[in-house]
Write a structure and sequence with these properties.
Length: 282
Amino acid sequence: MSKRPIAAILYDFDSTLATTDMQNFGFIPAMGMTPQEFWSKVGEFTNQTGADKILGYLYMMPRIAKEKGIRVTREFLNSMGRNIKFFPGVSTWFKRINDFGAEHGIQIEHYIISSGNKEIIDGCPIAKEFKMIYGCEYIYDQNGEAIWPKMAVNYTQKTQYFYRISKGAIDATDDKTINEKVETKRIPTSNMIYIGDGMTDVPAMIIVKNSGGKSIAVYPKGNEEKSAELVEDGRVNYSCVADYSSGRDLERILHLIIEGISINESLRHREEKNVTLEALNS
């Protein structure tokens, strides 16, 4: 483990890094449908059954694919991530932020917490940038076809991953560590940043903000109303355009946050050193 202090950036995916829902880029066109047609079918199913909306889409994906004669395998879903379109600057964002953190003595770790398909994210060009990707997953049968949700991440369940990452219990099946009381967290909650696009991220954004971290709501250019409301309501610290390019507002905000983390870590180290010296001299 690095001796440098760690800062974790937690990202939603759809409409945060990707410009819209990940299924819209590959999976839905492969079904011969429009996004409106697919999501309308998901809405009809959840309204009729009362199913959770996330479980609803996970059910409908293989069901519709079967009707079309398409096998939903892990490899098929991976391939659906290749053509995802991202907001400006995303492809170079991670190296720039990592380098800026290193310049200030901070190790940056990136995490995805998404209600979308993990298998699709795993197949996208930026998947390698993340220490861990949390998302919805399938169990596959002996023929490699999706048969049942292995993991479902709805909007409130996103909050558990904040605690997992802070404690270092990043394996989603590790229920022991996540529930244990720990004296020292791997990543202090004050060193955590959440970036999301709106209302579906509100529980996670509030948890991060109220725990001393920073939450940022991003929005497509010209569509700032909902994000501005989140700031006014005290649910997030900042809102800005979803533009990850060098020199834009989002990068400037992250630079300031990282500089603040660096200063706080230096002060914490100084305080700990003073306590040690006082103990030695007593």
